[in-house]
Design brief:
Layout: H1 12-26, H2 56-69, E1 75-81, E2 84-88, E3 103-107, E4 115-116, E5 121-122, E6 126-127, H3 128-139, E7 144-150, E8 158-159, E9 162-164, E10 203-207, E11 216-219, E12 235-237, H4 238-249, H5 255-267, E13 279-282, E14 300-305, E15 308-311, E16 324-328, E17 338-345, E18 350-357, E19 367-375, E20 382-385, H6 395-406, E21 415-417, E22 427-432, E23 435-439, E24 457-459, H7 464-490, E25 501-509, E26 528-531, E27 545-552, E28 558-565, E29 571-574, E30 585-587, E31 595-600, E32 604-605, E33 610-611, E34 618-625
Parallel strand pairs: 1-7, 7-10, 20-21, 20-22
Antiparallel strand pairs: 2-3, 3-6, 4-5, 8-9, 9-11, 10-13, 11-12, 14-15, 14-19, 15-18, 16-17, 16-19, 17-18, 22-23, 23-24, 25-26, 25-27, 27-31, 28-29, 28-30, 28-34, 32-33
């Protein structure tokens, strides 16, 4: 970024574009078909040669060129790695998909300038609506577009080794205006138009985060060398990292399968810390170019010696302490030869021990092996980080409340106190403006009163015992929700052929706007219906209508329960409890009629004139045999 902009440079994008360039080449894409816009890339065969700088006019010009050259049946990938921010929506500009909060999402090319109040935009910024029209022009030629955005659009914060890919709008002179969504409808913020007209190509959108969250980059030293930088400066975007792993180490053949691999990786927290959930939309069942079935998905190589196997992946990739792995011989992927436990793990390497050779296999004493995670380790520990000393004198009182709430005996319920200011804790406590803020590490810390995404907080002026009780309730709610989602993430989320349980989910997008008062009847006739995949983040908004059906095609009877987990840690039984059955519903064998979990997402709080919650929310279905 130019010095005049005041935007700090990111170290990750140069590595991001390099490893994706390598991944695309490995999947059969020719060098002449890849255009890279960047600066300061190293020279050599392991790095792309940039055609130009990542300036606004160059980026938009290349998109125009693609619109001219694209033909029906082509696949075009648009990838952006860098900073993003938000600016007030210009009501004079046409919009295909208006934003619910009255803010445009903005990508910041390297020549971006400050905000122009006359034109109501940042100089040289790329507005989501402009990008959407460029993408539409390519699709109009019949080409399929895969758009990948590893950036974010909310206020910036740096947490240890974690750096967010966002710029505070105020630092660029962007005015802080009241939301205008009351006069304009809205869908998912920043989504490009995914509906397809006759003759148009499809679109698959991969977004590192929702528009209210923060995309992040971290150090990944030693990954896919050579990289730009040394040691901890070998950084890349977490979203790009998991995309690269899924493209190069799995057999994914569709965009949906790729998205599922990405979500599985992030749900198990293997990237070095908490990250916000990504979002995927569009034609995800389209074939992914260059599918390769000649490798063992999710595997890492190692060498057996002295009864243990030293592996080249660690906790970052799921080879964490307590995980169960299947062992294969190189080139022989039809059947594992053994199973083992991960008995030691660092971030980037691990050791498998307690090897059990499968029946009919002659034990081997040494040699190369491949390992795949069979049963992931489930982390039930929930760590709370006390406020750092720099938060002021009130920190001492908060620490006392923490000790009263989660002192002796807290470990028995899986809650423990971490180091003050630990960015990788499950909940970070901060003190500011006379309040105690309960910050999730995968969400921005927003203290502006009345903001849509304001961080939950407690007043510090309350008596000590009340503060302790309120803090305990807030943390325990988050812990319960986190553990429930972790368990489900670690299990096979899709009904397998032998259990007979079939789960189908549909979302009907109401498009009523963020402030709409939701009706209680059926979704409107013009609502857009789309399937929901297990563990796949799906964009949803106020007044959207969700139907989840669970059917039993087996010879076994099941108990079934549904739980709604909101973004604030609330866990609600659905439908509401009855005196007779509690939260359990019966689903006998061979039942023709499925259990129906149907609800509207109703987030607008009319009294406070803001959403009751924003962020990732989950619906969990548990089915247990009688």
């Amino acid at each position: 970024y130019n010095d005049a902009s005041g935007i700090r440079d990111l170290l990750g994008p140069r590595n991001d574009v390099s490893i994706l360039w390598r991944a695309l080449r490995s999947r059969g894409v020719e060098d002449q078909d890849i255009t890279v816009l960047s600066d300061n890339l190293p020279a050599g065969p392991d790095f792309p040669v940039a055609k130009g700088l990542a300036h606004s006019d160059v980026i938009l010009g290349e998109l125009d060129r693609l619109a001219e050259e694209a033909q029906s049946g082509d696949t075009v990938m648009f990838y952006y790695s860098g900073h993003g921010t938000r600016q007030p929506d210009n009501p004079a500009q046409p919009e295909e998909e208006p934003e619910t909060d009255g803010m445009d999402q903005v990508l910041l090319p390297s020549d971006v300038g400050s905000y122009d109040p006359i034109k109501m935009t940042l100089k040289n910024a790329i507005i989501d609506d402009v990008l959407g029209r460029k993408i539409d022009a390519i699709r109009a030629k019949g080409a399929f577009v895969w758009a990948v955005i590893d950036a974010c659009h909310s206020g910036t914060v740096t947490r240890g080794d974690t750096v967010t890919r966002s710029v505070d709008p105020a630092s660029l002179g962007i005015p802080d205006v009241a939301p205008i969504q009351a006069s304009r409808g809205g869908t998912r913020e920043g989504t490009m138009k995914t509906r397809t007209k006759p003759g148009e190509g499809g679109l698959a959108g991969f977004y590192a985060v929702e528009s209210y969250d923060e995309a992040i980059e971290r150090p990944f030293p030693g990954y896919n060398l050579p990289m730009v930088g040394e040691g901890e400066k070998q950084r890349m975007g977490v979203f790009t990292y998991v995309i690269h792993r899924a493209l190069t180490q799995t057999k994914v053949s569709t965009y949906r399968e790729l998205a599922q691999e990405i979500v599985a990786e992030l749900n198990m927290d293997h990237t070095g810390g908490k990250v916000p959930p990504p979002v995927f939309d569009g034609d995800l069942d389209a074939p992914l170019p260059g599918s390769n079935g000649d490798q063992l998905p999710g595997s890492t190589s190692g060498r057996l010696a002295d009864g243990e196997i030293k592996l080249g992946m660690g906790a970052l990739q799921g080879f964490d302490y307590g995980a169960r792995v299947a062992i294969y011989l190189p080139g022989e992927f039809d059947q594992p030869v053994a199973e083992a436990d991960i008995v030691d793990a660092t971030a980037v390497e691990s050791t498998a021990g307690n090897i059990q050779w499968l029946e009919g296999v002659t034990p081997i004493t040494s040699g190369p092996m491949l390992a795949v995670v069979k049963d992931p380790a489930i982390n039930f520990r929930f760590v709370v980080s006390p406020p750092p000393p720099e938060d002021g004198e009130a920190v001492a009182g908060v620490v006392e409340a923490l000790q009263a709430s989660f002192g002796a005996g807290a470990d028995t319920i899986g809650i423990s106190l971490g180091d003050a200011g630990d960015p990788q804790a499950d909940a970070l406590l901060r003190v500011k403006d006379g309040r105690l803020w309960v910050v999730r590490p995968d969400r921005p810390w927003v203290t502006r009163a009345g903001a849509f995404d304001e961080t939950p907080s407690l007043p510090l002026g309350e008596p000590a015992d009340k503060l302790a009780a309120d803090l305990k309730n807030a943390v325990w709610s988050l812990a319960k929700a986190a553990k429930l989602v972790r368990v489900v993430s670690a299990l096979d989320s899709e009904a397998s052929a032998d259990d007979g349980i079939i789960v189908e989910a549909i979302i009907n997008k109401d498009n009523g706007g963020a402030t709409a008062v939701c009706s209680k009847d059926k979704p409107p006739a013009d609502a857009q219906a789309a399937p929901i995949e297990p563990l796949m983040p799906t964009a949803a908004g106020n007044c959207d209508y969700v139907t989840i059906k669970v059917s039993n095609d087996s010879d076994n009877d099941y108990y079934v329960a549904g739980f709604y987990v909101d973004s604030l840690g609330g866990v609600s039984v659905f439908p509401s409890r009855s005196k007779r059955t509690g939260c359990i519903r019966n689903l006998p064998a061979g039942t023709g009629k499925p259990l129906d979990f149907t609800f509207r997402i109703d987030t607008w709080d009319e009294d406070k004139s803001k959403p009751m919650s924003t962020g990732a929310e989950n619906f969990v279905v548990l089915a247990v045999r009688w």
